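Folding follows sequence. Below is one example:
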Amino acid sequence: MTTTIPEVNRIERRWLLVDAKDQVLGRLASRIAHVLRGKHKVTFTPFLDTGDFVVVVNADKVAVTGQKRSQKIYQRYSGYPGGRRTRTLEDVLRTHPERVLQQAVKGMMPDGPLGRRLLSKLKIYAGPAHPHGAQQPQPVQLLPARGAGSTHG
């Protein structure tokens, strides 16, 4: 038995369009990371970029569960004393809603050059409009809308 490795120049990439309206943030980010890595394809290879492009619209309408809007904190540190800056999820959603989903997907990508290359195939827009019409992205439903799934009981 031999393992076949796909040729880099023959990997087929599709453009997918995802509507983030009423989608739970973490679940949506997980499915997007899955598609960006190419794990949904038979030709998946861990050390190659075999994934598809993903265009996300309506990122400002993403849903979060529980009290995360007020309790989840994004922080960064400048390296200087007193240089720690924190913002709540609600603040970030108000000013730059696309960064919330970008950060969630980034945390699910591998570290290093491969992860950065995979993340460059993710295009996120706060509203319903996007400039990728020429690529003809195919609308896909990665998850059912919040509240539309089956009930477990």
